[in-house]
Amino acid sequence: MPKEILINQLFAGGYLAEGENIGHEVINLFKDDDGNNNLFITPSGSVNGHDLEYILFVRNYANRRTVEVVGLAEEVHPISNEEMHQVRYAGVTLDKIFSSNKYHGGADIFDNHVTFRAEKLFIPAKTIYLSLDDEFISSEETVYINTEKKVIIPQGMRTYFSENDDNIAYNQLKKLISNKELWKENATEKLFPEGAVHNQSPSFLEVIRKEDDENIFSNLLSYFFEYSHKSFQRFAAEVLDIPNMELSFSVERETMERIDLWIQSDKDIIVIENKIKSGINGVKEDYSQLRKYREFAEANKDKKTVHYYVFAPNYTGIELSKYADGNCYTLISYSKIYDFFVRESATYIADRAFPDFLRGLKRHTLSLPELQFETMRSRLLRKINQLQ
Questions:
Q1: What is the DSSP letter of 287?
Q2: For residue 196, what pLDDT band results from cuts at 50, 70 and 90?
Q3: Which of 14, 184, 230, 303 is such that its CA lies 20 to 30 A from the CA of 127?
Q4: pTM greater than 0.85 (yes/no)
């Protein structure tokens, strides 16, 4: 049987969006209590008829034709059911960790919680991309795979490159893997019953499951903009590019034509539409909510200067030019907002809500794949805390 390199995508698919399901592949991120690196190969955990030399774990970067490498497993071998049932993370068995998972509303269909055990597990020492797209340009380490395959990651979330059937691509990947300067070994850590797990308590937003709620974040932004007018004056200058914002202003929430944030001083009006998981609404042939808000603001500006913004997480990919009057708005990423509040932490640190607000902002500075990783990690730690 020819040697093969498996490329496997982690944390993708509708299964993870069903309730609070924990992706079985979360075990790939940690050592078990005995220091073993156990692996679950998505989507089903079953691998038959393949002689694997290496496994590269990836997350989708662009159109499944460009992926980012997040891990490398060497010397992989299956383990018995008896061994699998002995696996524990922070003292908790896999059966219990995944006991609440659902599949189409019913019980979880996966009971083979471990596919392989790896003697060696590495993470990239720097960003590594694999791409089939000649137009993809990056200053990071990139391997342009020479293959007849149309995508690196098909719908089944895994691809095999054989030394016989896809020799050029196989050797390209093997060369990448053999470059030890690109990899850090044994980067995964154990979870301990006392300490590491309990230090990872969920934020208040996570407890009430509002970490992706646009209204909640608009309320928080309104609160912290009002908290210190001097700080908001700096926010206006550094983030919104309004250098002479007055110290006296008002902040209104959804009172002006349901505009998320309407900030008004004697000289300026700031219109902010806050987006997290949704897109631009009210889109018709030559109309959108952005035009609606602009028409209202222009009709009521009374000699004031109006500034238009859309706040959005880094992963949304909103293109304002596609919408009526979208070019009148400036897109402000959550990473810019987060960076500002980090710099201004001394102003807000006495407020008990600020640390959770900051954690909530940070969540939305991640790319979508990074967000999926962080979500699964949080769900695992939360589940273990509940079971202990």
A1: B
A2: very low
A3: 14
A4: no
